Structure formats: structure tokens, C-alpha cells
Amino acid sequence: MGNIGRKKRRIEVLPSGDPSHSEPRQVPATTPSESPSEPVREPAEPASTPS
């Protein structure tokens, strides 16, 4: 039972870090979004040339 109480305490700490993790999560979410956009635009230009 002691373990369950300790695990429940960890869940309470998770929600507290959720809002904190939400901010850093948005930053990395924009980086990967821009990265795939750039590489997709580059191949789109060369693909138009051969077309």
C-alpha cells in the first residue's frame, strides 16, 4: 500500500509539470513543423524543373 501512495504522489506532480511541459512542447512542435516544410519546398522546386 505504501507503494500506491508514493505513485499517487507522482501523479500529482505530473499535472503540476503538465502546464510547464506544455510551453516547451509547443516550441519543439514548431521546430519539426518548419523543418519538414523547408525540405519539402526544396524538392518541390527541383521537381518542377524536370517537369
Describe this structure in words.
This protein is an all-alpha fold. It has one domain (1-51). It has one helix at 2-48. The N and C termini lie far apart (68 Å).
Which helices and strands appear, and what pairs or packs with what?
Elements: H1 2-48
Please give a quick description of this structure:
The chain is mostly helical and 51 residues long. The chain is 92% helix and 0% strand.
Question: What is the strand tally?
Answer: 0
Query: How many helical stretches?
Result: 1
Return the structural class.
mainly alpha
Radius of gyration, CA atoms, in whole angstroms = 22 Å
Query: Can you give the mean pLDDT?
Result: 55
From N to C, what is the helix and strand string? H
Write out key terms for the chains shown.
51 residues
